[in-house]
Amino acid sequence: MQRHILYGSLMSDNVKDLISQVIIAARQRGLTQGELAARAGMTAVGLSKAKHRGDIRASTLATLAAQLDLQLALVPRRGAEKSIEAIKSGTFFRISATPSDAER
User: Fold this and answer.
1) So where are the chain's domains?
2) 2-95 has which CATH code?
């Protein structure tokens, strides 16, 4: 049971970091947390609660990221420490590439 509680806490902290990363990216683009939430179809209170709880659906996180031209990215499995560092350093998200004329 103790192992499950520790894992849950670690996941919650990682999710909090991801949500914070999206909010920071919004601020860098001149958007408030409330404006980001509205663009993603949620309330500012809902986003705030998700951030403080460390709990959000992957689809909602992807929608928030998409409002900033970011996308969630899966990376090759690596050690937990490296994954956590990627989240904290801001490299978990990738900036979406604009399709070239050839791809359109």
Assistant:
1) 2-95
2) 1.10.260
Render 68-99 in DSSP notation, one character per residue: TTEEE-------HHHHHHHHHHT-SEEEPPPP
Tell me the per-residue pLDDT of 9-29, one tens digit each, with 9 for 90 and over. Answer: 667 888 998 999 999 999 999
The CA–CA distances, whole Å, from 53 to 11, 78, 88, 96, 104 equal 11, 26, 17, 28, 40
Q: What integer pLDDT is reported at residue 52 of this predicted model?
A: 93
- Looking at the DSSP assignment, which residues form a beta bridge with residue 94? 71
Under DSSP, the state recorded for 17 is: H
Q: Are 8 and 54 in contact (CB under 8 A)?
A: no
Cα separation, 65 vs 104, whole angstroms:
23
Token reading at 35? 């404006």
Lookup result for tokens 């998200």: 93
Quote the pTM value.
0.66
Alpha-carbon distance of 71 to 59, in angstroms, equals 11
